[in-house]
């Protein structure tokens, strides 16, 4: 029949009674889950509770380790920026020494303007020119915590 292939199977001609209406499934599922909870062995429930407590502790430790790793990366970036600024300062100083030997004129004036700009830029780039402070730690995503969780999943304990 033309046009029926795109319909869900439960509404195709002759099949309406094969699939239960979706609105009945959640209640049945909830009732069964409740029954499973009542049938659960008390020792099994306690083991699951203890496992969740261990998982929560592992998650807390993972958050702490993530924050520390973030701070270390920030420190390393500051150190690299400082080394870069030091190299740039040396370069600008070398250019300044050379410009002093230039005769007066437009080329010297242009180079002195460049030195002023470069020196100000290096001053702004050097992290040592502002007091250091701890970075704001972004809220970790689940994938951010995986390296710090060992065998645990960031999505919850598995039962």
What can you see in these coordinates?
There is one protein chain. With 159 residues, the chain is mostly helical. It contains four helices and no strands. It has helices at 25-39, 42-100, 106-125, 142-145. The mean pLDDT is 85.
Defining key terms:
159 residues; mainly alpha; 0% strand
Outline the fold blueprint:
Elements (H helix, E strand, L loop, with lengths): L24 H15 L2 H59 L5 H20 L16 H4 L14
Helix pairs in contact: 2-3
Task: Report a brief summary of the structure.
By secondary structure, this protein is an all-alpha fold. Helices cover 62% and strands 0% of the residues.
Shape: rod-shaped
Based on CA atoms alone, the radius of gyration comes out at: 33 Å
Largest sheet: none
Helical amount among residues, as a percent range? 55-70%
Span from first to last CA?
Answer: 47 Å
Q: H/E element string?
A: HHHH
Low-confidence stretches: none
Return the average pLDDT rounded to an integer. Answer: 85
Strand content of the residues, in percent? under 5%
């Amino acid at each position: 029949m033309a046009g029926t292939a795109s319909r869900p199977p439960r509404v195709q001609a002759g099949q309406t009674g094969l699939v239960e209406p979706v609105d009945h499934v959640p209640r049945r599922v909830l009732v069964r889950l409740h029954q499973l909870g009542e049938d659960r062995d008390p020792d099994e429930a306690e083991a699951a509770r203890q496992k969740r407590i261990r998982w929560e502790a592992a998650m807390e430790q993972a958050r702490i380790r993530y924050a520390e790793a973030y701070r270390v990366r920030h420190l390393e970036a500051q150190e690299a920026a400082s080394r870069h600024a030091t190299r740039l300062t040396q370069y600008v100083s070398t250019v300044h020494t050379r410009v002093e030997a230039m005769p007066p004129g437009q080329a010297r004036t242009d180079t002195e303007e460049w030195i002023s700009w470069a020196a100000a830029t290096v001053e702004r780039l050097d992290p040592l020119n502002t007091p250091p402070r701890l970075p704001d730690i972004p809220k970790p995503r689940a994938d951010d915590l995986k390296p710090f969780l060992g065998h645990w999943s960031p999505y919850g304990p598995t039962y």
